Amino acid sequence: MLVAAQTxxxxxxxxxxxxxxxxxxxxxxxxxxxxxxxxxxxxLLREAGLIGAAVPVELGGDGLDYAxxxxxxxxxxxxxxxxxxxxxxxxxxxxxxxxxxEHLQAPTDGLLRRVAAENLVLVSSGGSDWLQGxxxxxxxxxxxxxxxxxxxxxxxxxxxMLMTSAVHDDREAGPxxxxxxxxxxxxxxxxxxxxxxxxxxxxxxxxVELKDFFLADAAVSGRRPQGxxxxxxxxxxxxxxxxxxxxxxxxxxxxxxxxxxxxxxxxANAGLIALVGDMQNAFWTAETAxxxxxxxxxxxxxxxxxxxxxxxxxxxxxxxxxxxxELAMEVAGGGAFYRGSVIERAFRDIQGARFHxxxxxAQRDLSGRLALGLDIDA
Length: 378
Description:
This protein is α+β, with helices and mostly antiparallel strands and 378 residues long. It has 3 domains: 5-120, Butyryl-Coa Dehydrogenase, subunit A, domain 1, CATH 1.10.540.10; 126-225, Butyryl-CoA Dehydrogenase, subunit A, domain 2 (Beta Barrel); 231-372, Butyryl-CoA Dehydrogenase, subunit A, domain 3 (Up-down Bundle). Helix content is 53%, strand content 14%. It is built from 11 helices and 8 strands. It has helices at residues 10-34, 39-47, 66-79, 81-104, 109-118, 126-129, 231-263, 270-299, 304-332, 342-349, 360-372, and strands spanning 122-124, 136-140, 143-150, 161-170, 174-183, 189-192, 207-216, 222-225. The strands form 2 sheets. A 4-stranded mixed beta sheet has the order 1-4-5-8. Helix 4 packs across helix 5 and helix 9 packs antiparallel against helix 10. The longest helix has 33 residues, at 231-263.
């Protein structure tokens, strides 16, 4: 039964997310054990209408609001961190494109319409490229030849489009990063099976190789100087990281809840009570920091100050989420050390929170420079 867009309340979407979370919980351990991609979970997301839900109503989507989208990712993360993290990479591409269309009248409507109409899954390479970009764009007649290898391409096995970049050595402007989308079915595009990791093993974050891929001039969606903060990256920073860290908060919540369930079966003693209190403090810190940056992304204007605020929240939330999982192992005791324990899997999955931009040293540098009135591109 179709439901009109205006009747799809947050509770409607949360109910869908909870039903999916219940289904994917059963297979999460097996995907983790054998390192297999969570392909059937993407089928559930498609069937539920979540792939294009955040596309504006005017462009064929449901206009799902940003805070609810973050809440959905968190709910999925509580059952399967890999599904939530990979899905968050798609979500932030949609949310950023929608923000640019709504606030800047950017020509992202064509992509968003296709996502809504065709259930297109977008894959990001931004975490590995970041400000520098990666790969080469060599000018040829009518366009560029792209040669690159994009690591950490989460969800690529379910992907329809890789949203990526490459560096063109422009004679006049200097090294310039070109942004563009690449269909996974295009000639010269290969997924290389490289993802064999400590945690988040079901995300399918393999390398994607682009070999002499022809990019037409008209398909370049943006250009920017290499290695410099650009307005586009302030938008990405504002939108992407609350979504990504919603997945990690869900993972921390799963570890916390599992530890509490075990702790309640034990005789209470001062040491156990203190450990649980420490765990609660860590989880509160992670949740509060995430709530703050979700609210920032939903209402602020992008720019250096907003980026600093979101990246500070990313550092605090990530650190506290990791600490929550560490304390959950101590609260639960030796049973949490066994493979097959929800807490053991959460402990490994949550280590991924360390590696997304801006990693803590770079975040401190950005925030410190802003506070001192220094150039953030120095």
